[in-house]
Every structure is written in structure tokens, then in C-alpha cells.
């Protein structure tokens, strides 16, 4: 009975955290409260950013402390920005860097097609093949930026992709995609290593990695 009641209280606490975060819009002074409640529930949730772009400075800091990095993204634009530039320039030396991007070679009923269709519903400037083209461009960028790095591996997947994952041995940043908004406008969760959310992030990545194929530089 005690375990049952604790489970209910934990769920209520987690729901209260999310509600509070929605009201506070990720205010930094209250992140300590989020972390304290997270410790009680075992989720490992440390921070919530209203938009994933707001997390980039902290991501860059964590990349500089990492032993390894795993990234699964729906487009990969963040990989070409300043956040990751120390990694591609050789300024950072890591044990391994694994990156997963959607397979731009797939046609028909693919995740890229479905996501592209969703985006066109709220973004009139988004043409049918734009998302595929952006993924190709980012893959080509990575192929050139990492050509001298032996610890880097880029693979492509064609699986339902509900979130972006940027994980290190210390923490993970998760952005859950919304069918009615760009990923950059979606909230981003920061999860500490060994917590429930961190474990879920790694499981999501590993499942996609096992069902991926080597990425090819595409024209």
C-alpha cells in the first residue's frame, strides 16, 4: 500500500512540476525547485527551456565537458551552428560522436514525408521537398566538417521520430516535436544522467541507431 501511495504521489508531483513550468515559462531562479521535485520523483528533470534555441548556450557548455556525444535530430540544423563548431574544428576531443538524421533518400510513406506535410500546414513557405533538401545539406556539411575525424559516425534512419535528443555521458536535452510547430519553437527538457528521462533519451537513440544505415553524402 505504501508503494502504491508513493507512486500516486510521485505522478501528481510530476504533473504539478509540468504545470508549474508552464506557468513560469522556465524562469531560471526557480530551476532549483524543479530539480528538487525531480529528485523526489526520480525523473532527473533539471531544467525546462521554453524554446529549444534557449538551451544552446548550456548545450555548448555540456559538450565541452563530455566524453561522448549522441545526437538524433529531425533536421540537424543545430549541428551546423556555433554550438557544435568546437567539435568539428577539433578543439574538443571525444571518445565518440554518433549522429542520426532522417534518411533523405526514402520516398513514399517515410517519416520525412509525414513531418514535411505537418509543417506545410502551419508554414506556407515550406515546399514539399524543402525538409529533405535541408537534411541533405546538413549531411553534406557534416561529411566535410568531420572528414579528418575518426571518432565520428553519421547514420540515417526512417523511423517515427517524436523528439530531438542531444545526449552526453552527463546529461541529455530532449525536444518533443509538435505537429503544429517547428522544433525550434518547442520546449526543451534538460535531464541529468541516471534519471528516468535520461534513460528514455538514450533508449530512444539506441533503438533508432540499431535500425539505421550508414549515411551517404547526397547531391
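^ Assign residues to that structure.
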Amino acid at each position: 500500500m505504501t508503494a502504491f501511495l508513493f507512486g500516486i504521489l510521485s505522478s501528481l508531483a510530476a504533473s504539478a512540476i509540468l504545470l508549474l513550468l508552464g506557468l513560469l515559462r522556465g524562469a531560471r531562479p526557480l530551476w532549483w525547485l524543479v530539480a528538487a521535485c525531480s529528485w523526489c520523483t526520480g525523473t532527473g528533470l533539471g531544467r525546462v527551456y521554453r524554446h529549444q534555441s534557449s538551451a544552446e548556450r548550456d548545450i555548448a557548455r555540456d559538450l565541452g565537458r563530455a566524453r561522448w556525444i549522441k545526437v538524433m535530430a529531425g533536421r540537424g540544423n543545430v549541428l551546423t551552428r556555433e554550438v557544435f563548431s568546437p567539435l568539428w574544428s577539433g578543439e574538443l576531443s571525444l571518445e565518440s560522436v554518433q549522429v542520426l538524421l532522417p534518411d533523405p533518400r526514402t520516398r513514399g510513406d517515410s517519416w520525412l514525408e509525414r513531418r514535411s506535410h505537418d509543417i506545410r500546414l502551419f508554414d506556407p513557405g515550406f515546399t514539399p521537398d524543402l525538409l529533405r533538401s535541408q537534411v541533405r545539406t546538413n549531411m553534406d556539411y557534416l561529411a566535410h566538417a568531420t572528414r579528418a575525424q575518426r571518432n565520428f559516425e553519421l547514420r540515417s534512419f526512417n523511423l517515427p521520430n517524436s523528439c530531438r535528443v542531444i545526449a552526453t555521458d552527463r546529461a541529455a536535452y530532449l525536444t518533443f516535436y509538435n505537429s503544429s510547430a517547428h522544433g525550434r519553437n518547442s520546449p526543451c527538457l534538460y535531464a541529468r544522467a541516471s534519471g528516468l528521462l535520461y534513460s528514455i533519451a538514450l533508449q530512444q537513440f539506441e533503438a533508432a541507431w540499431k535500425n539505421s544505415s550508414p549515411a551517404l553524402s547526397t547531391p
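The chain has a mean pLDDT of 82.
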